[in-house]
Amino acid sequence: MPRIHHLLWLAPLALVAFAGQPSLAQEATDTAVVPGAPAAEQATPEELLTVGSPAPTLDIEHWVKDGGGAYEHVTSFTEGQVYVVEFWATWCGPCVASMPVLVELQQKYDPQGVQFISVSNEELAPVEQFLGREVRGKTNDDGEPLTIGELTETYCLTTDPDGSTYNDYMVAAAQNGIPTAFIVGKDGHIEWLGHPMRMEDPLEQVVTDTWDRDAFAEKMKAEQEFQAAMTRIMGLARRGQPAKAKEALDELIAGATTTEFAQRAAQLAVDIEFGLYQQLIQNDQLAAAKKLTELVEMVDASPRAVNSIAWMAVRAGNQGEVAEELLTAAVDAVKPIYEGGSASASLIDTYSHLVHLQGDLPEAIRLAKEAKADATGRLKVGITRFLQELEEEQAAAAGGEASGEEAEEAAE
Asked: Which residue pairs, CB below 8 angstroms and at least 24 apart, start in 273-277?
């Protein structure tokens, strides 16, 4: 099994935020998985909507914004015109971050007849409420905070609660993350699909008739088939079939046509192992200790990855009894990184929690103070609170000892 390079390891299926620290998935990804959406694993390689496929017609229920009536409520695509169909949601941070880019591109290519259509699958009410949210750092012509509603006046913002459009595009194309954009070319076929932040160059080439659809199609179909296989494997893992998931992963890695595909499949192996580790913490902490050590080796002792792995032992201790073997394994993973001088404030904070659970209060206080000195933002707030709890515990213990001595003196 290939080891996971520390810059690529995300474990998006299992990581959680802790002690004011964002999860690695939150820090590193520019897409969000749609909860409760139909699984993209339903699409077989033969059925994939891909580059070169005819673009499905649109059946959108609510056209929330249409450029003040400037844009048609599209069902089928007009020959000779280019469209961008993009999928988003109000809760999706990367989608909101992409909105100014969509505005800019719509304005740039409006003279060439390009129409941008953003589609959510949420109910109308939350979308309308979302329009009143302020855009961070932006003001309108009156110098007042710019709202999402004002920002999106220049293109089509829609929602389709029955999910039919999502199914026809996202599920059919084996896409799980949003935002995702599809460029529909002048002949009504899919020219490109991907993250809207990476759309400008392909869109320029499609508009100017210089785009090489066939060259991109071959690469895109390989990517989609690989992603569909990954999604099927994730489905096996989520349904409690880890052995089948591992077998399928081994086959996927062995048959990978590129180093990148093999690396990404190996990342998924870590995700699955992390999920098993979480289950073992709940059911068999001795086995969880062994799994923790295996995971640390799989991620090549990456400090960020080790931090997330070790924090699960802290969580177990905070929620109830925790096996000494699990705490020892976590400390053994964290300590070399700390002693090597490459520990972040968040990792030192994790180390502090672990030694506190082992009963070494003075060392926990020392580490918490060190972590606090290097921390910022929410992390510093969380560490400060924990340090206060430790110092209160120390004071209570000291008071108890003094009271005991006084009682002995009185007895004498």
From this structure: 273/298, 274/11, 274/13, 274/14, 274/15, 274/309, 275/13, 275/14, 275/237, 275/242, 276/242, 277/14, 277/309, 277/312
Q: What is the pLDDT at residue 273?
A: 85
Scan for tokens 């450029």, then name that residue. Answer: 67
**Distance between CA atoms of residues 312 and 47, nearest Å:** 40
Q: Which residues contact 160 (CB under 8 A, 6 or more apart)?
A: 59, 60, 61, 62, 119, 120, 121, 166
H helix or E strand, kind and range, residue 64:
strand 62-66
pLDDT digits (tens, 9 = 90+) for 282-312: 999 999 999 999 999 988 899 999 999 999 9
In angstroms, rounded to a whole number, what is the distance separating the alpha carbons of residues 56 and 189?
A: 9
Which amino acid is located at 113 in the chain? G
378/354 Cα distance (integer angstroms): 20
Q: How far is CA 312 from CA 86, 291, 305, 316, 324, in A?
A: 37, 12, 11, 6, 14
Name the stretches of the chain with pLDDT < 50.
Answer: 1-29, 39-41, 403-404, 406-407, 410-411
The pTM is what? 0.60
